[in-house]
């Protein structure tokens, strides 16, 4: 989000020109959409971009002009836009928040390195294995209530549900501690710099 202060209202915004100098660690910008709101008049303009501003992707341009979406376009694309927003947020959230996926495709704004993400994944995997070993081969009471049965092949009893619940809670707590330690060390590292 950018906040640009002007001493007067913006008036009617018809188009938007964006450019950058293609420098920095990640010079490619993907531009999804831009929303401009005049804080004085409360007018809102939407620009649906869906393109790259990059010298090495798509058309190789780092400067582009976009036209504001008209009211009838916004109304006709409202359902498509809401579906697009839901899909965009879902895919972004999945990539940013899912620890296993973020190893392969880390979010650009995250301070965690790929090595730190891999170490979190390995601690999660090893912790899951260790806790499941602790609950392995616990004698099951033959008289315990069966919650779900799939013929004679497989049945789910209350003891199994109990053990798996405690395993999941144990893994979650240990993993949460690992993440908090990692967050704390990153905050400490940034304060030192």
UniProtKB/TrEMBL annotation:
Entry protein name: PLAT domain-containing protein
Phosphoprotein in keyword set: no
The keyword Zinc-finger belongs to this UniProt entry's keyword annotation: no
Lineage: Eukaryota, Metazoa, Chordata, Craniata, Vertebrata
GO biological process: detection of mechanical stimulus
Keywords, ordered alphabetically: Membrane, Transmembrane, Transmembrane helix
Highest taxon of source: Eukaryota
Ranges where the PLAT domain occurs: 1-67
PROSITE patterns in alphabetical order: PLAT
């Amino acid at each position: 989000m950018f906040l640009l202060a002007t001493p007067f209202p913006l008036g009617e915004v018809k188009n938007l020109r964006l450019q950058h100098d293609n420098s920095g660690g990640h010079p490619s910008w993907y531009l999804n959409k831009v929303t401009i709101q005049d804080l004085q008049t409360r007018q809102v303009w939407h620009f649906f971009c869906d393109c790259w501003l990059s010298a090495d992707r798509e058309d190789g341009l780092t400067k582009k002009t976009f036209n504001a979406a008209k009211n009838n376009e916004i109304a006709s694309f409202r359902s498509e836009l809401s579906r697009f927003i839901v899909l965009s947020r879902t895919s972004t959230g999945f990539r940013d928040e899912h620890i296993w996926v973020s190893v392969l495709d880390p979010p650009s704004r995250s301070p965690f390195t790929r090595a730190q993400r891999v170490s979190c994944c390995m601690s999660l995997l090893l912790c899951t294995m260790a806790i499941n070993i602790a609950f392995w081969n616990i004698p099951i009471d033959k008289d315990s209530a069966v919650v779900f049965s799939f013929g004679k092949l497989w049945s789910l009893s209350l003891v199994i549900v109990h053990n798996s619940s405690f395993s999941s809670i144990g893994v979650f707590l240990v993993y949460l501690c690992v993440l908090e330690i990692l967050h704390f060390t990153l905050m400490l590292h940034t304060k030192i710099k």
